[in-house]
Specification:
It comes from Microthlaspi erraticum. Helix content is 38%, strand content 31%. The chain is an alpha+beta fold. The chain folds into 2 domains: 6-61, no CATH class; 64-114, no CATH class. The strands form 2 sheets. Strands 1-2-3 form a 3-stranded antiparallel β-sheet, with no helix packed on it. A two-stranded antiparallel sheet has the order 4-5. A hairpin with a 2-residue loop joins strand 4 and strand 5 (109-114). Helix 1 (6-14) packs parallel to helix 4 (38-61). It is elongated, with a radius of gyration of 23 Å.
Length: 120
């Protein structure tokens, strides 16, 4: 069914959540065989443990959200921690000679309006 090496198929399948393994096994005999193999189970357990570890780290860090702010006529991306109140800069959109006066947001898109009333 696939020309991918078995190891690569194992890698891809190991990224799936445990709840999806039943559907994967019923897809084809080869995937059924792969998902029941020792090396797959070992790899999948490693992926699951790594995911759980990252989740615990994130919980310890607090509740973070990303926000876009207008600071000194520049657009900045900031990380705001709601559990342990703090704000950290992540990055800026720097355009020399362009001073942003307003940012409008709709459905994940941003419209930046300059001091000269140009739209970006």
């Amino acid at each position: 069914m696939s020309d991918l090496p078995r190891e690569m198929e194992e890698e891809v399948l190991s990224k799936l959540p445990v709840t999806s393994l039943g559907e994967v096994r019923s897809t084809c005999k080869k995937w059924n065989s792969i998902t029941k193999g020792h090396s797959f189970l070992k790899r999948h357990m490693g992926e699951s443990a790594e995911g759980a570890s990252k989740k615990k780290q994130k919980q310890r860090k607090g509740i973070e959200i990303k926000v876009v702010m207008l600071l000194e006529k520049r657009v900045s991306l900031m990380s705001v921690n709601l559990l342990y109140p703090s704000i950290e800069p992540i990055g800026n959109i720097n355009a020399d000679g362009v001073d942003i006066s307003k940012i409008i947001h709709c459905d994940g898109l941003f419209l930046c309006i300059t001091e000269e009333e140009r739209l970006l």
